[in-house]
Design goal:
Structural class: mainly alpha
Oligomer: single chain
Shape: rod-shaped
Radius of gyration: 26 Å
Helix content: 55-70%
Number of helices: 2
Distance between the termini: 67 Å
Order of helices and strands: HH
Strand content: under 5%
Length: 69
């Protein structure tokens, strides 16, 4: 992580509007991108513990047995 001296140096730099918007956009992308990756990983780990509807054994009703048995 950057120390406070590097952050102060970055904030003291003169920037054009285009450079500022580019840096701001990259920062937003980094924040929301990391959040999306984490939520995807958490969601996928929760789904792996559940049984799929197709994997559950149906004992009664439509699809309970193969046709012709």
């Amino acid at each position: 992580m950057a120390d406070t001296g590097q952050i102060k140096e970055l904030l003291d730099q003169k920037m054009t509007r285009q450079n500022f918007l580019r840096a701001f956009g990259v920062g937003l992308l980094a924040v929301f991108g990391a959040g999306n990756v984490l939520s995807y990983l958490l969601r996928s780990s929760n789904q792996s513990k559940r049984t799929s509807v197709l994997a559950q054994k149906t004992t009664t009703g439509f699809g309970a047995s193969k046709f012709g048995r």
